[in-house]
Amino acid sequence: MKKLFLLLSLIFSLNSFSQIEKPITKGNMVIAGGASIQNNNLETSSDPTSSMVGFFSISLTPGFGYFIQDNLSIGLNTNMTYLHSGYISYFGLGVGPNIRYYYKNGLFIKAEFMIDFLHRNFPNYGLNGSISKQTNFSLIPGIGYALFLNQKVALEPCLSYMIQHTIDQSINSHNFLLELKFSIFL
Questions:
Q1: Do residues 60 and 35 touch, judged by C-beta distance below 8 A?
Q2: Cis link prior to 23 (omega < 30° from 0)?
Q3: Torsion of CA 86, 40, 181, 60, to 10 degrees
Q4: CB under 8 Å, gap of 24 or more: what pairs does 172-175 form?
Q5: Which of 29, 96, 104 is nearest to 68 (CA)?
């Protein structure tokens, strides 16, 4: 009975948020910021073998959007990333366009394209390590919910799927992301 009461309370509270007039109309802007944490497994292939490599990453993703029509925004995202795999560290910056469509109940769908420029550091155990550069292209579709705290501020949890390709190497990755963005609508 307590679980049913908790579930009904949650549904009614989310429904009360959906009654707020949402600023997702033509001419409005949105400034968003968020973070994502990933734990990935990459498959690398080189003739005649392939191998799996795991890594952990943290990304900060500030962005901007403009509503070109009601419920539809286009914008630009940036990405600051730290990745770690074994003894190798990566630091990267990225940029790319995004598009979002908001439904009246707060659900949204999104698509992002990112170009990331990574600097990779290979330590040499006491010697000067070597640094190399790497370029990644990513396509990130997703679905989320804009939980409006008031008419201008929303928390936006989102489940996304990232398809990433590394230009300089034969590395492709497919990953699920759980993101939480904080958005201010102007």
A1: yes
A2: no
A3: 30
A4: 172/42, 172/43, 173/40, 173/41, 173/42, 173/43, 175/38, 175/40
A5: 29
Beta-bridge mates of residue 148? 154
Instruction: Identify the pLDDT of residue 132.
Output: 75
Q: CA 44 to CA 12: how far, in whole Å?
A: 48
Average pLDDT in the chain = 80
If residue 11 lies in a helix (H) or strand (E), which one and from where to where?
A: helix 2-18
Give residue 155's identity as a one-letter amino acid code: L
| Alpha-carbon distances of 86 from 53, 127, 169, rounded to whole Å | 9, 18, 18
Distance CA(55)–CA(176), nearest Å, equals: 14
- Sequence ranges of the domains in the chain: 2-185
**81-118 b/e (C-beta count within 10 Å ≥ 16 → b):** bebeeeeebbebebebebebebeeebebebebebebeb
- Mean pLDDT on 64-76: 94
- The span from the CA of 50 to the CA of 3, in Å, is 48
Q: Does the structural domain 2-185 have CATH classification 3.30.70.260?
A: no
